[in-house]
Design a protein that fits this description.
Shape: elongated
Helix content: 40-55%
Number of domains: 2
CATH architecture of the largest domain: 2-Layer Sandwich
CATH class of the largest domain: Alpha Beta
Largest sheet: 5 strands, mixed
Oligomer: single chain
Number of strands: 7
Strand content: 15-25%
Structural class: alpha/beta
CATH superfamily of the largest domain: Dihydrodipicolinate Reductase, domain 2
Strand order of the largest sheet: 4-5-3-6-7
């Protein structure tokens, strides 16, 4: 069964820590202080790596749980109203790409066709990603469109000529890809692309920690990473 195959990350960390502690004791007792110093550094790096991975897993788990519920409370209303959830990831640099997407859409204007491409690991259950939907929403908003009226999820067969109003949305799944997002602005003779690729979940853990430090100083409300980064 899967539970018998998948090893608990906490158990692996504890086992690694115990082994390093045993070796450290031996080095100190043998007056091998240089080797002991190296082991202390190894223990510190292992601890930091474990913290980042744990925060990353918790952040991803919370993100997936909220997405699966498909709800997002509008705290500006009493009682809270329920709306579809469009939650994007907690990476600081990804939030900058989201901000740049809006600026590029405003500057480049209608002559450019708009496409959003996202890729994630094979285990991801929802599509498109919350971040991809956020990017597409921004593009539609700049053009004063309702996303549900213009979004086109993939293409197959004889689709006919692409309309200038549609916004393409494409989801790729495979391997262990943490998260790639690309916004394509395509016109005759040129193409502009904004891309963010996450190669480690630590980037989301860092963003989550930064958001946690920021949000405890704010008044009660509903915030996102653009608030955290001062992009609003």
């Amino acid at each position: 069964m899967a539970s018998d195959i998948i090893e608990d990350p906490n158990s692996l960390f504890v086992a690694e820590l115990k082994e390093c502690a045993k070796l450290l004791t031996e080095k100190l007792q043998g007056n091998q202080f240089e080797e002991a110093s190296v082991l202390i550094q190894t223990i510190t790096e292992s601890r930091d790596r474990h913290i980042f991975q744990t925060v990353g897993r918790l952040t991803r788990g919370l993100h997936n749980a909220i997405v699966n519920f498909h709800v997002d409370a509008d705290l500006s209303k009493r009682p809270p109203q329920i709306a579809d959830s469009d939650i994007h990831d907690a990476s600081s640099r990804l939030s900058y790409v989201i901000e740049l997407t809006q600026k590029a859409a405003e500057i480049l204007g209608p002559p450019y066709d708009l496409e959003v491409v996202e890729m994630h690991h094979r285990m991801k259950r929802d599509a498109p990603s919350g971040t991809a939907k956020t990017l597409a929403d921004i593009l539609a908003g700049v053009r004063k469109q309702q996303l549900e009226n213009v979004v086109r999820h993939g293409r197959a067969g004889i689709t006919g000529e692409r309309t200038s109003e549609e916004i393409g949305m494409h989801s790729l799944r495979g391997g262990d890809v943490v998260g790639d997002h690309t916004v394509v602005f395509a016109a005759a003779g040129e193409r502009v692309e904004l891309t963010h690729k996450a190669s480690s979940r630590e980037t989301f853990a860092n963003g989550a920690l930064r958001a946690a430090e920021w949000v405890v100083k704010q008044k009660p409300g509903l915030y996102d990473m653009q608030d955290v980064l001062g992009l609003k």
